[in-house]
Amino acid sequence: MRVVENVRPHENYCLLKLTPDKGLLPEMIPGQFVEIRVDGSPSTFLRRPISINYVDNAKNELWLLIQLVGDGTRKLAETPQGGLINIVLPLGNGFTLPSGKENNGKFLLIGGGVGTAPMLYLGAKLKQLNAHPTFLLGARSRKDLLQLDDFEKLGNVYVTTEDGSFGEKGYVTNHSILNRIHFNRIYSCGPKPMMVAVAKYAQSNLLPCEVSLENTMACGIGACLCCVEKNRDGHNVCVCKEGPVFNINQLRWLI
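RESULT FIELD:
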């Protein structure tokens, strides 16, 4: 795929907007991910898994919001406009989209850190279905909140920051909106402790909830067994192949 634009919204993130060198993008479901080959980095041998941030079908563009955490991701961030990147896509199972009468419900999309990335495409898909997405985004501080303008085009946005520099101070699971509005379903992606807390909130309020896990996924096809997670029965499942999206009732978190 060819880089249409390389944006740096934050010193520790880059947003790559990509288009196929030939043809159209395949159909992609919110919550799926891609595996990127890193060229030119002697210390990087495995592909890097990145959540699908957004798909602009009108422009035939795929957006990937990449957190710069090591040599591989930092090398990807150096790819110039017009550069080519080798990508395997789409991979994994995505979020369950509502159908029928459920479309009129209220859906809460909770993202923390780089876990906000898949919430953008999910919110866009929900809006296309005439559903009502509400976003609850958590970050360390104001400067760590990304793509707020894009989220605000899709639905109401609520924010928590750990230092109180924007929105309510604290964690997403302490936001006052959880006590003021009744939602029909919750979707979440972010650090595991955050998602476990979200899952417990959903369980206590009898709300359907799906979470997107961020386990290390080296191959993306269930072969290397790096990304295993215990399911409710205590068996290992490959997050990349069985997930990365799971209903909380499939996991061992709430036992």
